[in-house]
Specification:
Elements lengths: L2 H13 L3 H14 L5 H8 L16 H18 L16 H14 L2 H15 L13 H9 L1
């Protein structure tokens, strides 16, 4: 199963209020998965990559992710040639404007993941969206093992 369909199924599951409906949706999702994808899917649904008795941490803070998103927005705008960037004393680009946008979206939506999804969708639409070349559809196992590296 490709990761986009898996993500959509999990979004629908997240919006489901009834435990019985959730169980039905999970059963349908498991039926759609290949046998080799079930383990990876279960770990991803739990927000993990390894069993709980193994320690694996990403060590990514909220601020670090926000700065990465701000930098992505800045690079996207640079590619459009609609912004000039200035470097500070240490040669770092000044992306305070983009960082404040990311922080405002995070505060408004109440979740960094939702803010990230919204920002990425806006960037995708601004870059041509449907007219741009399609990206390859990643499989669940590809995403799982790439994260686990």
């Amino acid at each position: 199963m490709n990761f986009a369909n898996f993500s959509k199924a999990l979004e629908q599951l997240e919006q489901t209020p009834s435990r019985l409906e959730m169980t039905e949706q999970l059963a349908q999702l498991y039926q759609q998965l290949d046998t080799g994808e079930i383990g990876a899917a279960i770990y991803l649904m739990q927000g993990r990559l390894v069993p709980q008795y193994e320690s694996l941490e990403f060590n990514l803070s909220t601020k670090m992710i926000q700065r990465a998103l701000a930098r992505l927005m800045e690079r996207h705008q640079e590619a459009d040639n609609s912004a000039t960037t200035q470097s500070n004393f240490f040669g770092e680009e000044n992306n305070n404007q983009f960082l404040s946008i990311v922080q405002q979206k995070t505060k408004k939506l109440g979740d960094l993941g939702l803010a990230t999804a919204e920002i990425l969708q806006e960037l995708w639409l601004n870059s041509g969206g449907l007219n741009s070349s399609p990206s390859p559809m990643l499989q669940i196992t590809e995403v799982f093992f790439a994260l686990k590296k």
